[in-house]
Specification:
With 264 residues, the chain is an alpha+beta fold. It has helices at 2-12, 15-26, 32-36, 43-55, 75-84, 90-104, 119-127, 129-135, 184-189, 194-202, 234-256, and strands at 59-64, 67-72, 109-116, 138-141, 151-154, 157-159, 166-170, 174-178, 207-216, 219-227. The chain is 45% helix and 23% strand.
Length: 264
């Protein structure tokens, strides 16, 4: 944690790197050329800054065909804010708080965590009902082939829809599927009022991607990208709080056998 914080703090200390993060906050998923346009920096300089940000975990790079796109990663900022902001005077913490807010307002939600487990165990934990029920309270029914339908069981309610489907199923490496439909039964089971449910239902259907990558010494790097979100939408606000807690419980379950204790 301290090493990750140190790298993030060092990366954020440079004004050019903060500007690059601002650009990604305005529009996530940009190429090197797009990020450097109009900055007055050479392509090599922009590339070096992006490499520092990626090393610090503040951005994630994904290849689309021949092009590499860069995405904000809220994980390190969330960790810094949770650990440090409350320890300092409000004025001194304002810059970190503002940056955290900016990252959480980005259209795509990106979060990275490191889990002491194997790719096989983590893969099972993302799909198998006995795992997902333990840390998420949700169970999936699907044959998990690309394009296959998915049924979500959540606190006694079942949600199915033709657009709830598996998008990518690459064992031990990459899993992606569309998000569930916001039905009245789901809302009632989760204490969601009618107005909020209607606003959620009016937003475009989003999708989540899990990327698994061995990180050495029995650790797996898990990157979660929840994309296709409505800018400033209700779901974007909800998942910015929900995913960090859910992934912390997943990490705790795999490393200790139990989820984190509920805040009391």
């Amino acid at each position: 944690m301290d090493q990750v914080s140190d790298e993030a703090f060092k990366a954020l200390a440079d004004a050019s790197r903060r500007l690059l993060l601002d650009r990604l906050n305005e529009r996530n998923g940009q190429s090197l050329r797009e990020l450097g346009d109009g900055l007055g920096m050479t392509r090599q300089a922009v590339s070096k800054h992006l490499a520092v940000l990626e090393s610090a975990g503040l951005i994630r790079v994904s290849r689309h065909g021949r092009e590499k796109l860069h995405y904000l990663d809220a994980g390190p900022i969330t960790a810094i804010a949770d650990r440090w902001i409350n320890r300092y005077h409000r004025d001194r913490a304002r810059a970190l708080a503002d940056l955290r807010t900016a990252l959480e307002s980005a259209v795509d939600f990106v979060y990275t965590t490191y889990i002491r487990t194997t790719p096989e165990q983590l893969w099972d934990a993302l799909r198998q009902p006995e795992f997902t029920a333990a840390y998420w309270g949700v169970q999936f029914r699907s044959d998990w082939a690309a394009g296959a339908p998915m049924t979500w069981s959540d606190r006694g309610s079942e949600t199915s829809h033709p657009e709830q489907r598996v998008l990518v199923h690459d064992p031990y490496r990459r899993l992606a599927y569309t998000w569930h439909t916001f039905t009245p039964a789901w809302a009632a089971a989760n204490g969601i009022d009618d107005e909020t449910r209607e606003r959620l239902a009016a937003e475009p259907r989003s999708a989540v991607t899990f990327e698994l990558e061995p990180a050495g010494d029995g650790v797996v790097k898990l990157t979660v990208v929840h994309g296709d979100l409505e800018p400033g939408g209700v779901l974007r606000s909800m998942i910015s709080e929900g995913w960090p807690r859910l992934l912390s419980d997943l990490k705790s379950l795999l490393e200790t056998g139990s989820v984190l204790a509920a805040a009391g």
